[in-house]
Write a structure and sequence with these properties.
CATH topology of the largest domain: BirA Bifunctional Protein, domain 2
Subcellular location: Cytoplasm
Number of domains: 6
Catalytic activity: tRNA(Ala) + L-alanine + ATP = L-alanyl-tRNA(Ala) + AMP + diphosphate
GO molecular function: alanine-tRNA ligase activity; aminoacyl-tRNA deacylase activity; ATP binding; tRNA binding; zinc ion binding
Keywords: Aminoacyl-tRNA synthetase, ATP-binding, Cytoplasm, Ligase, Metal-binding, Nucleotide-binding, Protein biosynthesis, RNA-binding, tRNA-binding, Zinc
CATH architecture of the largest domain: 2-Layer Sandwich
Number of strands: 35
Distance between the termini: 100 Å
Shape: globular
Cofactor: Zn(2+)
Bound molecules: adenosine-5'-triphosphate, magnesium ion
Structural class: alpha+beta
Radius of gyration: 36 Å
Helix content: 25-40%
């Protein structure tokens, strides 16, 4: 069965069981601060499990792109070495939110595997939770009894908390689970040892394919468990592993999910898969990693120097490194795999198809820049090797190479071993640990459980219509972090505060109780669909109502920038073309930043056109037309722009100004004329094929023009109120250049005269032409004169002194012949004479200089010069 069919069979099986099929969420979730990437199918549904939102259907099914490269679930180091762990993989899931529970989940899983997919039940094992003393939990006998209906008891295994109790993090919904494992070994192998003994033993052919999680508890901050009011089903089946089973192969990499990419790598590298284990590991690493990196870029997460972007950069670098070391690829090549990838997966995940060009460009440039790093690193490593005494390179040096220059440690070790040297791995690991401790200490944070007050519903955001409201606190908690110290997070029944999102900053403002006590809201954010207000203190009277007031000024200026961002987006697509796609935006009260895909620098003319376009729409006084709760399809049909990497619901909010229409949850001006004026302040590159524009509006634009006009007036005044100041300035510059030329000529003349003068002053002492004199020339003039005199004589000894800005400089020139015949050394001369001017210096035997801070010593130094030739 082809992988495409395997995927669609899963989805349609659960659709028949009344589940709604939903698309995969993007891999980076914007309102979950606890996760860098989606690492399991349940992550995008956390808000439903936590009871913060209601799904449209209590039964859903999907395939979710998951990335396990950081945090609690990190498989990165396994990838390439085994045949069934990936960085990016698809997790097929069926979901029940307070609807069906264990009985249906178990029966349907069995039906799908054995009847629809036709897997022989004799290769399957299932596990159930054995219970845990630590958590005071009994064995999951309910699941055991249910499985017994389908599976013989010798194939139902009991598992411990590590394997059979699923938790998404340190806190939150969790529960026991039942895993389904396959044993795809040959009959011969099976005769040697029973599959039963290999389950959960990291055997490459006895692997877990599906995990059915029965969510029924909530883990609190103090580690204790409480029962959830509603029980849920969360299942996750590894798509690539399922394909391995159904296609009758022994490795995920031998399924049609990967073989086209492997063939392409073979063609590009001229190496064969399956001949040499090192090459095989490299090929697996590369074909795995290109998927992770490509999908991440398509979802809007570009490689960068921090956070999630840095993780992506490291994954790509790992692939480059394996290509570099084991496939001899010293040129970018990974980007060339995006073609097959998009042909293979573009149907299920169209984002990879539509953004192919961008993905290729970004990967290519990253490859290029890392290959340059590798080149530089090799040079540095050579220098380290040359400095090393003995046979071991210090761990500290290797760490510096790794940390500062991004040079991979395994490559360092490999190169050293080729040179017969050792690496002090212990020292390296110590440095690494120190660094980890530093960053852990910096990000340490403790979060209390929510304190729930009353049962008021937590309602929606009302800040589109009002900036002030009477609100009641529904829950709060304390969070302590190194960065912000002690903070409180407050949730209200209703709120006018806009939570950070869609690039727009969160609102600030204050809360006031009836006695006039005020607490400031420093920021507002959304977390798993709950709007959280950040304050330094807990309000005194938490059970009362508060007047919640948004800082209107900041909100208005932010709105000007947000609406201008929409107009800018429209302008860019109109002027540069429809290949322009939003790749990020940051809308603050001070300015706006807009990142978009485009392949070259914007010309001044294009920038002018963009400004004109936006300002024309501001002048047109376009009214805001806002449609809330529009069906998403209808909005798209009307021409609304939607963004990759955003998670949209079924109904959306559409924002229109004239012909500009976008799906957007942000806040906007009522009329474009509020923006007053739009001014671009910078344009530049952020990554290959991605440009960034920064711009200002309203007050900031006014300030900008005011400051400029002030500077202009001042400049004109300096130019004697010239009618044409630009021309006057050009004249000044030309005059200045002419004067500089004249001075140069004069200085040359002066040096020439000086040379003649000095030549006449030479005296002969002991057969040496000698002169020690204070002259009025700069250092380079001095050197010229010395060398010119020197070229005319072969027994010259010169000592010149100059003084400028309260400092003294000695220069000594000695003909090479004298250096040889008399053993003289200009370096020694200036070092010794330098003492008189309280300075030091050095150079070569025939020319050396010394600087000092005591010009008063110059006469003494000159006086003593003779002694060197006597
Ligand atoms: P394993 O023990 O094999 O690492 P797991 O216990 O981490 O698996 P779960 O967290 O239960 O797996 O995830 C559900 C399913 O997702 C697994 O049954 C497996 O089929 C699949 N899966 C998990 N991790 C990976 C991975 N890194 N690559 C591919 N598939 C995976
Ligand atoms: Mg795992």
């Amino acid at each position: 069965m082809k992988s495409q069919d395997i995927r669609s069979k899963f989805l349609s099986f659960f659709e028949d069981k009344k589940h709604s099929i939903v698309p995969s969420a993007p891999m980076v979730l914007k309102d979950d601060p606890t996760l860098m990437f989606v690492n399991s199918g349940m992550a995008p549904f956390k808000e439903y499990f936590l009871g913060n939102a209601q799904p449209k259907n209590s039964r859903l099914t999907d395939t979710q792109k998951c990335l396990r490269v950081s945090g609690k679930h990190n498989d990165l180091e396994e990838v390439g070495y085994d045949t069934y762990h990936h960085t990016l993989f698809e997790m097929l899931g069926n979901w029940s939110f307070g609807d069906y529970f264990k009985k249906e989940a178990i029966a349907w899983a069995w039906e799908l595997l054995t009847e629809v997919y036709g897997i022989d039940k004799d290769i399957l094992y299932v596990t159930v939770f054995e219970g845990s003393d630590e958590d005071n939990l009994p064995m999951d006998t309910e699941a055991y009894e249910l499985w017994k209906e389908f599976v013989s008891e010798d194939r139902i295994l009991k598992g411990n908390k590590k394997d059979n109790f699923w938790e998404m993090g340190d806190q939150g919904p969790c529960g026991p689970c039942s895993e389904i494992h396959v044993d795809i070994r040959s009959a011969e192998e099976k005769a040697k040892i029973s599959g039963k003994d290999l389950v959960n033993q990291d055997h490459p052919q006895v692997v877990e394919i599906w995990n059915l999680v029965f969510m029924q508890y909530n883990r609190k901050a103090n580690g204790s468990l409480e029962s959830l009011p509603d029980k849920h089903i969360d299942t996750g089946m590894g798509f690539e592993r399922l394909c391995m089973v159904l296609q009758g192969v022994q490795s995920n990499y031998d399924t049609d999910v990967f073989t086209p990419i492997i063939r392409e790598i073979e063609t590009i590298s001229n190496k064969k898969y399956g001949k040499d284990e090192k090459v095989d590991v490299a090929i697996r690493v590369i074909c795995d990693h290109v998927r992770a990196v490509a999908f991440s870029i398509a979802d809007g997460q570009l490689p960068s120097n921090t956070g999630a972007g840095y993780v992506i950069r490291r994954i790509l670098r790992r692939a480059v490194r394996y290509g570099f070391t084991f496939l001899d690829k010293k040129e970018p090549f990974i980007y060339r795999l995006v073609d097959v990838l998009s042909a293979k997966m573009g149907e299920a995940f169209p984002e990879i198809k539509t953004q192919k060009q961008l993905v290729e460009n970004v990967i290519k440039e990253e490859e290029q820049s890392f290959l340059r790093t590798l080149d530089q690193g090799l040079v540095l490593l050579n220098a380290i090797v040359n400095e090393t005494k003995g046979d071991t390179v210090s761990g500290e040096k290797a760490f510096e190479l790794y940390d500062t220059y991004g040079f991979p440690i395994d490559l360092t070790a490999l190169i050293l071993s080729e040179k017969g040297l050792k690496l002090d791995e212990k020292g390296f690991n110590e440095e690494l640990q120190k660094q980890k401790n530093r960053s852990r200490a910096a990000s340490e944070m403790s979060t209390d459980d929510w304190t729930i007050l009353g049962t008021d519903a937590e309602e929606e955001f009302i800040g589109y219509d009002t900036l002030e409201a009477t609100v009641k606190l529904t829950r709060y908690r304390k969070v302590v972090s190194k960065k912000d110290g002690e903070m409180y997070q407050l949730v209200f029944n209703i709120t006018p505060f806009y939570p950070e999102g869609g690039g727009q900053v969160g609102d600030k403002g204050y809360l006031e109780d009836s006695r006039g006590d005020v607490v400031y809201v420093l920021d507002t954010k959304k977390e798993n669909n709950v709007i959280i207000h950040f304050t330094k203190n807990l309000p005194k009277h938490i059970d009362q109502s508060f007047k919640a007031v948004v800082d209107a000024n900041q909100r208005f200026r932010t709105e000007c920038n947000h609406s201008a961002t929409h107009l800018l987006h429209q302008a860019l697509r109109e002027i540069l073309g429809t290949h322009v796609e939003q790749k990020g935006s940051a809308v603050h009260s001070k300015n706006l930043r807009f990142d978009f895909s485009h392949f070259s620098k914007l010309t001044q003319e294009e920038l002018n056109d963009v400004e004109d376009f936006v300002n024309a729409r501001i002048a047109d006084k376009l009214d805001l037309i806002e449609k809330r709760n529009m069906p998403k399809e209808a909005a798209i049909a009307e021409g609304a722009m939607s963004l990759f990497g955003e998670k949209y619901g079924d109904t959306v909010r559409a924002i229109r100004f004239g012909q500009s229409m976008e799906l957007c949850g942000g806040t906007h001006v009522k009329n474009t004329s509020d923006i007053w004026h739009f001014k671009i302040v910078s344009e530049g590159a952020v990554a290959a094929g991605i440009r960034r524009i920064e711009a200002i509006t309203n007050e900031a634009a006014k300030d900008f023009y005011f400051e400029n006009s002030k500077a202009y007036s001042e400049m004109r005044a300096l130019l004697n109120n010239a009618q044409e100041p630009v021309k006057a300035l050009q004249n000044l510059q030309e005059e200045n250049a002419a004067l500089k030329k004249q001075i140069e000529l004069l200085l040359k003349d002066k040096a020439k005269n000086l040379k003649l003068e000095l030549k006449n002053e030479l005296t002969e002492i002991n057969g040496v032409q000698f002169l020690a004199k204070k002259v009025d020339l700069d250092a380079s003039g001095l050197k010229d004169v010395a060398f010119e005199l020197g070229s005319q004589s072969d027994n010259l000894f010169l000592l010149f002194a100059t003084e400028s800005d309260g400092k003294a400089l000695l220069s000594c020139y000695i003909s090479k012949e004298l250096v040889a015949s008399k053993g003289l050394d200009a370096g020694k001369v200036v070092r010794e004479l330098g003492k008189y001017i309280q300075g030091g210096g050095g150079g070569q035997p025939f020319f050396a200089t010394a600087g000092g801070k005591m010009p008063q010593g110059i006469p003494d130094a000159l006086e003593k010069a003779q002694e060197f030739i006597k």
